Amino acid sequence: MRDWLSSHTQAQHANGQIEVVVTSAGSIAALVCEVMGLPDASWYSLLRVIRNASLTEVLYSKGKVSLLSFNGVSHLPPQLNTSM
Prior knowledge:
Elements: H1 2-10, H2 25-36, H3 43-49, E1 55-61, E2 64-72
Antiparallel strand pairs: 1-2
């Protein structure tokens, strides 16, 4: 994840470009650990709380990566708010 994040954020992107990445909870947990500077041991704790089809937003701006939102499910009806 570190290598991907580093190479991806160093690529030239148009100003204001939006990218959508669809992936699994494990990858999201690893990305959040990296962005927030958390130890690798935090991965499992994050993995346990990530909801299915949740939204996590990461902002890359001026050479920095920031977590804007994590595990959002407001777009889902209650019956689809599930986890692993």
